[in-house]
Design goal:
about 20% helix, alpha+beta, 8-stranded antiparallel barrel, single chain
Length: about 260
Amino acid sequence: MKNTHLKKVIISAIILLSFSYTANSQVLISLLLGDKLNSDKLKFGLDGGANWSNITNRDPSMYKAHFNLGFYFDFRLKENTRWYLHTGVLVKSTMGAQKLNPYFTGNADIDSLFVNGNVERKINYFNVPILARYQFKNMLYIEAGPNLGLRYKAFDIFTAEVEDKKDLSYTLDVRDQFTRIDAGVMAGVGFQVLKGTGYNFGMRYYYGLTEILKENTGDPQRNSTFYLYFSLPVGAGEKAKAKAEAKKLEKETKNAGKEPK
């Protein structure tokens, strides 16, 4: 049974990652496969919400709000235990910061327009959390573990105000300035609504341990991000309902002294 579940997870992860460049495809595939994956030992579904990101040792800078979306797996590590392993992929996941000082781009015309402006930095990752989770009897849980990120895009958005107060903007592709891999630690607290098949909500904090800038001569710059998330199992409710009905039928036939048909 364990090998069967593992094969399902691996095949589903490959399919989902193949379509992960668009959130719509990821949601569609998740909906199609959800009822095939959920069981007593494994919960699969969609994971998303809002996150607020900043970059350490970058002064000035401010936290910037983003939205994120992905899929998750919750494995029960052992029968009748409160320990779980939470993992998955945040397919749409942006980090970075806002209110950075403008810098010279090498284009004199561009530099002159934004000398008194601001820069918003967006770094897009595929993020993979691997969290050990302990769930208490009241359905509250705590979790912690590593998080790995694969950078695939990065942009600096320069903005400034012109005389009529309309924003002037310029977007610069800066992906080559940042490392491909980001790694750090994540910890959080959450709550499960409805035992077994319910949804989860909670908050996590991620702190990067690796330098994200390739050629940085100053203090190391790292990602710092708060997550407010909502996790919705896909197909688990239907499977649980069918299981409950089967148990009810079995109980009724047993009480009536009959064998199930």
